[in-house]
Amino acid sequence: MTTPSPTTTLEARTTAASARGLSRTYGRDEHAVHALRDVDLDLPAGRMTAVMGPSGSGKSTLMHCLAGLDTPTGGSVTVAGRELAGLDDTALTLFRREHLGFVFQAFNLLPMLTAEQNILLPLELTGRRAALEARPHVDAVIDVLGLRDRLRHRPSELSGGQQQRVAIARALATRPAIVFADEPTGNLDSTASAEILDHLRRSVRELGQTVVMVTHEVDAAAYADDVVVLADGAVRAHLVDPTTDQLLETLRGGTA
Ligand SMILES: Nc1ncnc2c1ncn2[C@@H]1O[C@H](COP(=O)(O)OP(=O)(O)OP(=O)(O)O)[C@@H](O)[C@H]1O
Where do the segments described as Disordered lie (predicted)? Predict the structure, then answer.
C-alpha cells in the first residue's frame, strides 16, 4: 500500500468549509483593490487551521467571506454543506447563529452577566429546551477551558486571559461547525496567549471542534495543525502539519 501524500490525506478528510474561485474586490476601475483573487481552499473539519500572511494580504477578507460576514464579488463559499450565496440576510444571520462561532481580539463579554451567563447566552437565544439539551456539552467545554471555578465571576473580576477563555467557551457552547478566531491573543501577554492557544487546541483535540484562526504570529500558528499562507489575495501555500522550520521557510518565501 502506498503512503498517501499530504494533499491526498487533506482531500480525504471531511471538509468544514470550502471556497471555489473566491474573489473579493473593493472599489472599481482604477481604484479597485483585489483583496481576494480566485481563491480555491478546503478547510478540513476537526482541525485547527491558522491563516497567515503580510498585512493587507486578505486574511480578514477571507475569514469574513467564509463566515458570511462579507459578500464575495465572485466564486462560491460552502460552509457545513451550505452554499452561502443561496442565503438572504435573514437566513445568513440564522445560519451564523446556528453553525458558526466567533472569537475576536476584544472579548465582547456582557459586563453585568457572570461568566456562566455569558457562556450560556447564545444557547438561551436558541430556546430553553436547546439550552438544557446542550448542558452536557457546555459542561465539557467549561472543563476543557478550565473555567469551572470562575463561573460565578463577572468579567471585571477575571484576568484578560480568563475573559478570553469565557469568550471561547461562549463560541463553543452551540457546537458550531467552525469557530473563527481573529487574532484571539492580540490583547494578551505571552503567558496568557500561550494558555489561550493551548485551550483552543484542546477544544480541537478533545471536543472535535474545527477552528480557523487568523494570526500574524508564527508562535501562535505553531499551535495549529495546518497553515494557509496568503500573499496579495491568493493562497501561496496550504501546509498540512508543518514543522516550525517549514512554516518559517514558507513565510520567508522559500518552497519548503
Ligand atoms: N471595506 C474595504 N474597502 C476597501 N478596501 C478594503 C476593505 N477591506 C479591506 N480592504 C483592502 O483589501 C486588502 C485586504 O485587506 P484585509 O483586511 O483582508 O487584509 P489582512 O491580511 O487581514 O490585513 P491585516 O493583517 O493588516 O489585518 C487590503 O488592501 C485592504 O486595504
Answer: 1-22
